[in-house]
Amino acid sequence: MGNAVPLVEYLALGDSPHLVANQCTECGARYFDRRNACASCGGTSFEKAPVPTEGEVRAFTIVSMAAPGIPVPFVAAVIDCDGTTVRGNIINTDADPDHVHLGMKVKLATYPIGTDDNGVEAIGFGFEPV
Amino acid sequence: MADNVWILGIHMTKFGKYPDKDTVDLAAEAALGALKDGGVSMKQMGVLAAGNLMGASGGIGQQLQKQIGQTGIPVYNVANACATGATALRTAIMAIKAGECDYGLAVGVEKLAGVGLLGAGGRPKSDKQEWQPHGRYGAVATVDGRIGTETMPGVFAQVGMEYGHKYGGTSFELFARISEKNHAHSTLNPLAAYQKKFTVDEIMNDVMIAYPNTRPMCSANCDGAAAAVVVSDAKLKTLDPDQRRRAIKVSASVLTTDPWQEACQILPDVNTLTRNAAEQAYAQAGVAPEDLDLVELHDCFATAELVHYDNLMLCAPGEAVPFFESGATWRDGTSPVNVSGGLESKGHPIAATGIANIWEVCHHLRGEAGDRQIEGAAVGLAHVIGLGSACGVHILEKAA
Asked: Which of A10, A60, A71 shows the shortest C-beta gap to B145?
């Protein structure tokens, strides 16, 4: 794995890429960022929890206007992965309302973002139609 | 239970483009207008609460004092995203409720014309030549556009789509028809930044920003200010009959933030805190949703207006689509919503919005709304939400 880094720390690479949540050991609330404490119960103890890689589109938008340098259009979505909600783009399909719909079944997919001067490849993720 | 607090004077500038005026000019125009409307002066004010979100570190309150009256009173400069104006008003109301003073002035001002897309803050730095994790997600490159969107039109598009997923019945056209309503309403509001009627086709075929929100379905960035003078019940009783007649009772003043919910840090949950604020406000005021003669709610995007019908309990849970389709929220319907034209056409100078919507409601309750007067209006509600999130709800009633 020395030649690849994930776009974000909560993306686990390897043979079966998946997302990893910080789960509060007290109440089970899940987060993807670095935590100081749990926003739900105040607990300060967390454990890593793998997130299912298949889910359902709960909300989406097709962004046609974004900050300079961000390629458009793209589909931004909220995915319900068997009870854990995740943010991600819908990829590997056309970014139009004929190809993306609410309730659509999707699964995690990774793709290369680029290679740095050390030859290390950054890997991003999105969700593609099942 | 503390005595009532009343709005004695209130003013908003016309919203639009003011290349020759700065924020202090606009704030001063609104503040002096509110003082004049209330028949009082800066010397009588016991507290000033002021907001200017884009210049939040600049101390707009003191800058304003230096133009209209340095009387030495406490100033609270507030910033609470799009709820900044409501927060300023509520701060002045709290000071009066606390018994610290009899009069307070709240001001919100923003210069936003030509600012462009909001929320596109994570501007892509050129991707590093060596991947280095940064921030709370340990991201090695820009995530906006790669992991969802940070832009406001996109976030609120998803808010509306999520409602559609949960309850069904939404479509691109439905959201466009909400926008059609607000633009139609705006033609009666001379203070709106835009007073242009659009057909549904024109709305749907306009520039796409973030599906299903096209440009006319997004709040209009513009300049503007609004201000309100609030007064204690005891002091109001000593004032002239005409001041008392035009005073508007603040029957409820509520500010909430979003309580933790599953997924609320994935897509902002603008629903729970709005519903909580509405429930508290109805209880405080002893008013039911069906008692409202008009509602100004935070239609920052057409997709947002729909969910707030439900959150503010104007309809039964899950029934926002049939509620809108019944025509209820048009100005001649049973629950007129955004008769000002809403943020989509009146405009959304952020910190001014949470007082300007109060001005709109007061205007009707006083019977001074001219061509767009909702006849016999006696009770109204004003709602704002600032992403992050903060929600302000005020219920207002005309003097008995």
From this structure: A71
Cα-Cα end-to-end distance for chain A: 27
Contact B321, B301 (CB under 8 A): no
Chain A positions in Cβ-Cβ contact with residue B121 (cut-off 8 Å) = 67
What share of residues in chain B are helix, strand, coil (percent, to 5)?
40, 20, 45
Contact status, residue B85 vs residue B142, Cβ threshold 8 Å: no
User: Quick one: average pLDDT of B174-198?
Assistant: 98
Type of residue at B47: V
Contact criterion met (CB < 8 Å) for A8 and B117? no
- Residue B7 structure tokens: 């709005």
Strands (E), chain A: 4-6, 11-12, 18-24, 30-31, 46-51, 54-63, 74-81, 84-90, 105-115, 121-129
Which residues fall within 8 angstroms of residue B204, CB to CB, at 6 or more apart? B172, B173, B176, B214
Domain boundaries, chain B: 5-114+220-398
pLDDT in tens, B127-141: 548 999 999 999 999
- CATH for B5-114+220-398 is 3.40.47.10
Q: Which of B122, B213, B263 sits opposite A67 (nearest CB)?
A: B122
ipTM computed for the complex: 0.94
Residues B22 and B67 sit within 8 Å (Cβ to Cβ): no
What ranges do the domains of chain A cover?
Answer: 4-129
Q: Please determine, for residue B41, whether its predicted confidence score (pLDDT) is greater than 60.
A: yes
Q: In angstroms, rounded to a whole number, what is the distance separating the alpha carbons of residues A57 and B200?
A: 27
Q: What is the pTM of this model?
A: 0.95
Distance CA B81, CA B385 (A): 8
β-bridge pairing A4-6 and A121-129: parallel
